[in-house]
Write a structure and sequence with these properties.
The complex is a heterodimer. Helix content of chain A is about 5%, strand content about 40%. In chain A, the strands form two sheets. Chain A has a five-stranded mixed β-barrel with strand order 4-5-6-8-7. In chain A, strands 2-1-3 form a three-stranded antiparallel beta sheet, with no helix packed on it. The radius of gyration of chain A is 15 Å and the shape is globular. By secondary structure, chain B is an alpha/beta fold. Chain B has one domain: Thiolase/Chalcone synthase (Peroxisomal Thiolase, Chain A, domain 1). In chain B, about 35% of the residues lie in helices and about 20% in strands. Chain B contains 14 helices and eleven strands. In chain B, helix 1 crosses helix 3 and helix 4 packs across helix 14. Classes of the chains: A mainly beta, B alpha/beta. The complex binds zinc ion. The site of zinc ion has 7 residues of chain A, from loops. Zinc ion binds next to loops of chain A. Chain B: This is Thiolase domain-containing protein. Chain B: InterPro entries: Thiolase, Thiolase-like, Thiolase_C_2, Thiolase_N. Chain B: Keywords: Isoprene biosynthesis. Chain A: This is Zn-ribbon domain-containing OB-fold protein.
Chain lengths: ~120, ~400
């Protein structure tokens, strides 16, 4: 499956060129977006996402959906990058080791179950 | 504007009925609502039915006319889909239709068939209630999303992990106690706080008994105008006096609050305003406890507790059957079961029974006059709240 806007956004992390889109009034979002849900603006620019973000909440998933069955247990986290938040799977750390408030950086990894690209988060 | 009365309610047993089709389940609930109401099927002018995963679980789209046919109806029929709030929306639109004077008799409810698939498949089909691009592809299951909210809640309000888990286990235990006498409930059995705490983890801090089960079932509510009830001498003392609905960003990452549910705040404010009451007037509540933390967020959104204060309510006994404000006397989604698209209708059915006095737990709230139902979709990207009152 190919999803215009999303796929480009995800793969930009491979080259360390992660970005978000910002509306004319400074509201940050993840693409694809045509209309800012905060203000209705339709003018967007691509802006660089900060290199690292802060874990805002995190859980260890033990019972996964079939598409992540072999990955379980794994940690998934919502990470605040300032202008936008991103959700991803934590790698390079034992499950439960990363906590709220920790710094992580985004990258593209693969699901162990399906091989599909996933957004991963690596402790800084 | 016409007043709206609950003329009759019908439920199937909530539980595991893998061999029973959705149409059969719904027909049973509809038939029992009709018999409860004493209203002929020919008088039903509209069917509103909630369903979430029918196209996935039964390979069946275009469900509404099929369910109408199964229920013996020959009237316009529409399916409402709003994840776990599907039947809540179906009821809300029925209330609005009767109020507008467009119809005097509307059947609303819902149905879900879930146990014909195994747990991983159900986990996958429930996950579609989350944001597919930004959550499902990041490994977020439905329990994981609520676990993220639970951890954010503990962090926001300075609660340590052990206290969080204990207070959540008390919610599960309370709702199991309430389900014991309810003949429609999936689990009519006790669950101790210790058993809940010892359960295998699903998505931390949530264990197996923090999660509602996988359930088949159907609900039906026959709503009529006050005039119709009077003209036909119906015994319909419970009125729907308030309805409200709210929405929020789909993905948790796009929400202002990860530990609060503003969609439910908005739905409650709208429903209370509509009913001309405030939270203090509520005697009893049925809330959407798909996960134990969801009940905590619900009782805060409904205005019974300030943010951060609802967590200990079950442990302190306040929301237990013998407390000041009993919550989920039916057993809730946790113990009664959660056939996703039927749940919102079953909350109305249970609340009507509680207020009429013919629910097995009615004697716990013998003087109750005002009840509230809270039905949430997904991680509360949508919410529907209703206020029911004993009218005469
Ligand atoms: Zn904007």
């Amino acid at each position: 499956m190919s999803d215009a806007g999303f796929d480009e956004w995800l793969h930009a992390f491979v080259a360390d060129d992660g970005y978000y889109v910002e509306c004319a009034n400074g509201h940050g979002h993840l693409p694809p977006r045509r209309i800012c849900p905060d203000c209705g603006s339709t003018a967007f620019s691509e802006e660089a996402l900060p290199e690292s973000g802060t874990v805002e909440t995190i859980t260890t998933v033990h019972v996964a959906a079939p598409s992540f069955e072999s990955d379980a247990p794994y940690d998934t986290a919502v990470v605040d990058f300032g202008p936008a938040r991103v959700t991803g799977i934590v790698v390079d750390a034992p499950t439960g080791a990363v906590e709220i408030g920790d710094e992580v950086e985004p990258d593209v990894g693969a699901s162990e179950t399906t091989g599909d690209d996933v957004l991963v988060l690596r402790p800084v | 504007m016409s007043g709206v009365r609950v003329a009759g309610v019908g439920l199937t047993h909530f539980g595991s009925h893998p061999e029973r089709t959705g149409r059969d389940l719904f027909a049973e609930a509809a038939l029992s609502a009709k018999e409860d109401a004493g209203v002929p099927l020919d008088d039903v002018e509209q069917l509103n039915v909630g369903n979430f995963a029918g196209p996935l679980s039964e390979g069946q789209g275009h469900l509404a006319p099929l369910l109408g046919e199964a229920a013996g109806l020959s009237c316009p029929a529409t399916r409402y889909e709003e994840a776990c709030a599907s039947a809540g929306v179906a009821v809300r639109e029925a209330v609005r239709t009767v109020r507008s004077g467009e119809a005097d008799v509307v059947l609303a409810g819902g149905v879900e068939r879930m146990t014909n698939h195994d747990t991983p498949e159900v986990t996958e089909s429930l996950a579609i209630a989350a944001d597919e691009l930004f959550e499902v592809r990041a490994g977020v299951t439905f329990p994981a999303a609520y676990a993220l909210m639970a951890e954010a809640y503990a962090d926001s309000f300075g609660i340590d992990e052990a206290d969080l888990k204990t207070d959540l286990a008390n919610v599960a235990s309370k709702n199991h106690d309430n389900a014991i006498p309810n003949e429609y409930a999936q689990y009519q059995r006790e669950l101790t706080v210790e058993q809940a705490l010892d359960a295998p983890p699903v998505a931390e801090p949530l264990g197996l008994f923090d999660c509602c089960p996988i359930t088949d079932g159907a609900s039906a509510v026959l709503l009529v105008s006050e005039e119709y009830a009077a003209d036909h001498d119906l015994d319909a003392e419970v009125a729907v006096v308030g309805t409200g609905q709210g929405a929020d960003r789909m993905a948790l990452q796009d929400r202002e609050h990860l530990a609060r549910t503003p969609a439910a705040d908005d739905a409650a404010a709208m429903a209370y305003d509509d009913a001309g009451i405030d939270a203090d007037a509520v005697d009893v509540a049925e809330v959407h406890d798909c996960f134990t933390i969801a009940e905590v967020l619900a009782i805060e959104s409904l205005g019974f507790y300030d943010p951060g204060e609802g967590l200990g309510a079950a442990r302190r006994g306040e929301t237990r059957a013998d407390g000041d404000l009993p919550v989920n006397l039916s057993g809730g989604l946790k113990a009664k079961g959660h056939p996703v698209g039927a749940t919102g209708g079953s909350q109305i059915a249970e609340m009507a029974r509680i207020l009429r006095g013919d629910h097995p737990n009615s004697d716990k709230v013998a003087d109750a006059e005002v009840g509230v139902t809270h039905n949430a979709g997904g991680t509360v990207a949508s919410a529907v709240v209703h206020v029911l009152e004993v009218a005469e």
